[in-house]
User: What shape does this take?
Amino acid sequence: MKRIISIAYLNGACINFWIPAMNRFQLAQRIDWDRIMEELRKYYSICGRRPKSTRLMVGLMILKHRYNLSDEGVVAGLHENVYWMAFCGVSPERSEIVEASTPCKFRRRMGVKGTNFIEAILRDQLVQGHKMTHRMMLTDTTAMEKHMAYPTETGLLQRGRIRVMRGIQKLAALGVEAPRGLRSFTRVSQKVLVNINKLGRDRAERVRDGAYQLVEYARHTLKHVPQIIEQVGPVIKRLRQSGKGKISRKVEAIEKAVRSESMKLLQVIDQTIARYQELPQGRKLYSMHEPQVTCIRKGKRSKPNEYGSKVSLWVDRHGYVVGHQEYRDNRQDGKTLADALRSWEKVFGRLPWGLGADRGYHLREEGAPQELGQVERVAIPARGRYKPPEERSAWFKRLSAKRAGIEAIISHLKTDHRMSRCRYKGFIGDQMNVSWAVIAWNTKKWMLDTG
Assistant: This one.
């Protein structure tokens, strides 16, 4: 009896193992790889070494965000998983060796436009296959955090000064003479940070005094930057005359980086002084390596502040993500509605019959986008105690209940498809990360949809 049960269990395990594999084979047959390869052909050059297959790289990126893996993890999985090879169009007998840095190079090559091409091709297939429907539009916004430490003035001052000093040291190694009297403050700045991080009754005073000390160290470093920049020009000229063009271009790049880091460090100094002197501040800098990051408040008790970019998503009634838009600022949700409606009309050729959104999208009539007046049913709850009669209607309740489903989609995008924290560089990286997460979500639903 135990033998029969064990055999039945093994048979069930084999069935559960084969079903996802068969679904992946079906998905590989559904995707229009020829059109993807044709659209992305312009991003490659006919000169140089032969690149990796476009289908291989696109398949790797889909698998990476589908299973929430790093570049190293997805490359290792490709070399071991036969089903992943079949999905990427790689023969097991002639398996290509892919390095962990290859997906990073592919993302740089494609950029935002290339990623949008891939997303648009898959979306067109879903629309033509009647998987995506135009009738109902559900929209919401969320915050996508950046891969960075929690921003504090003392930490930014220390990191900014270190980044400037590293650039100066690189220039000195390439022949640019460092000015006399320039100090690195490596030892004393560490003592200041240790004193700041100690707990105690007078910690607020110690943090303030330590911040002012770090400001003085940063000012000392910035005072010598113009002297170094003046010496870069003659060094570049001398290198070019001696036939060292590659080194001269390297010096130019480092000089540009030193200028940029100096400007950011100066901004951190100004915002630190403004904070302790209770002066008005403009746009704050929260990260030295990601200066475009903004502070987003969504009213969460567990995480009141999130540092990254704001993402607007809109989905159809079946849960497919039709489009998205990323913003560098924390704009009001209602101001993202115009972009969502225009994108929806561009995809389907018409506006939706019904629109569902939360009360954050509520706008006055003079502030509402023009396209909103052409939507027949709009379910956006009003703010305040007064509720209009339409909120008690059946269609309004149905749209509001359907809109709640987008919260689960956003949760899956963050938990399963790497949208909780963006590890790609810059605002371009934010846009690409959301695009690949949406592609992974839509292809997963498409794979499981047998209808």
